[in-house]
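Something for you to look into today, if you have time. Could you write out one complete protein record for me, on any chain you like? The space below this message is yours for that.
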Amino acid sequence: MTKDIAAILANPQFRAACDALRDGHARYVDEIVTLTEIPAPPFKEERRAEAFRGMLAGYRLEDVALDGIGNVTGLRRGRGNGGIVVVSAHLDTVFPEGTDVTVRREGTRLFAPGVGDDTQGLGALLAFARALDAAGIETEADLLFVADVGEEGKGDLRGIRHLFTEGEYRDRIGAFFSLDSPEPESVTVRGVGSHRYRVSFRGPGGHSYGDFGTVNPAHVMADVVAGMARWQVPAEPRTTFSASVFGGGSSINAIPQEVWVEIDLRSVDQPALDALDARLHALIAEATAAENARGDSSAGVITAEATRIGARPAGETAPDAPIIAACDAALAAFGFEMKRHTASTDSNIPMSLNIPAITIGTGASGARAHTLEEWVDLEPGQSLRGLSAALAAILATAGLHVEG
């Protein structure tokens, strides 16, 4: 693969594409600002999607449109050899509706919620489309540009899940790139799976004094959370759990009729995640039965309902996969040292389907993602090195066609 990257770097068309990235860098920054300032709160990405669709439609792409779930897709046909290589970035942010997303510029830094996660990735998609056209590059495989919905939080990867399970291109995708996060060195090659639940406990309720002794759903919830605290989980494969959000009850002097807790279970190994899931359900059943046996249930018993509100599959791209070798060689060629990373990203979906996938940054520094103080530094030298490295890795995976 190092030989392939060397050939790409020496190719006049690739050098022309890098020149186009340099000449268009100011436009790249402006497009990031424009898109960042279009709110895209969870499940409300439509405005940003429509704006991005219009921006993408100006390049050599076919069928630029919104798919059935709201992803923006556009196909750049290659020579028809090797199926489709997806290049994606996500439209949504973690920030609720009403968040101020005005971008503040300080030199080469941009400050705004969502500017790096993942509006910078959307800007990179546009910059790559522009550079490929300017250089007249043709690939062996087709390139599918995707701006997807639902990557964050309770979006549950719904955009990429749709792409691979119901989308029109699902049976032709052979490799997948997610452009997400500023730093190019940290390449996600292993996907953390998660199961998320809202567990509701319901009972007859009553007066805290007059009905004292009546079965109490809060006792069951407390027993479940305390029981989780006593779990022993493996350090490898890394497996975690958290009781994260709580609610319920109506008054300090009332036995609640309903309480609930949201629980996050994670592992890099799907069987370990499934085993933890089974432990949770067993614990819920045991705690419920214990409270019904302990208290007065003449007015009714405690019931428990675990509603799954998220399920991200675990997965991994094989360490010797060509897509990883391409990233390693491309990053090294531009002065970066690749660090193999584990995270929960859009790449989880193709990884779980044994489709080679990685998540890579697009060439800048940044910090404070998922906070109101989020920032990226798009200093041109560093930014262009990262963009060029990512483009080289994509071309090595898709195949740069050379006449003759």
The mean pLDDT is 96. Residues 270-294 form the longest helix (25 residues). DSSP finds eleven helices and 19 strands in the chain.
